[in-house]
Structure formats: C-alpha cells, structure tokens
Amino acid sequence: MNISIFGPGLIGGSIALDLKDEGNHIIGVDKNPKHLEQAIQLGLIDEAMGQDEALAKSDVVILSIPVDGI
After folding, report:
1. 11 near 65, Cβ under 8 Å?
2. Domain range enclosing 46
3. Residue 55 is assigned to a structural domain of this protein
4. What's this model's pTM, rounded to 2 decimal places?
C-alpha cells in the first residue's frame, strides 16, 4: 500500500517506521527539503514528493503536522 505522511518528523517518522515494517511504501511530504532528505537517510520514508503528486499516488494519507500548519 502507498502511504503518504505529511510531516515525517518525530511523530510522523515513528508512524512511518511501523508502517514500513508491515511492507508499505512510504511517501514523505514536507515544506522543507532538508527534512525530507534526513527522513530518507534515516530510512523513515521511501521517497519524497510534492503534495499533489503524493495525494494522487496514495492509498492512505496521514497528517502529522503542527495544528497551526493546517
């Protein structure tokens, strides 16, 4: 299953690891490209992309961003 995580930080990254362990493909979405690079290097996400592309490719979307970011 393709799962997008908007905000693969501390909480989103933890969720991503559990979902990857179950064999899911994890897509990371974040405004900051450095955060996405770091998430890929740490093995939290499989790939990074923009929100429109991620929404089109995803079976499930998880929002893990600060309330004021919505």
Report:
1. no
2. 16-64
3. yes
4. 0.92
Q: What is the arithmetic mean of pLDDT over 27-54?
A: 97
Closest residue by Cα to residue 65 from 18, 1, 17, 13: 13
Q: Which two tokens stand for residue 69?
A: 């970011």
- Does 3 map to a domain? no
Picking from 31, 24, 37, the residue whose alpha carbon sits closest to that of residue 6 is 31
For residue 60, what is the enclosing H or E element?
strand 60-63
Asked if the structure places residue 5 within a domain, the reply is no
**Total domain count for the chain?**
1
Given this model, what pLDDT does residue 66 score? 80
In this prediction, residue 42 has a pLDDT band, given cuts at 50, 70 and 90, of very high
The residue assigned the tokens 């909480």 is: 11
- Note whether residue 40 is domain-resident: yes
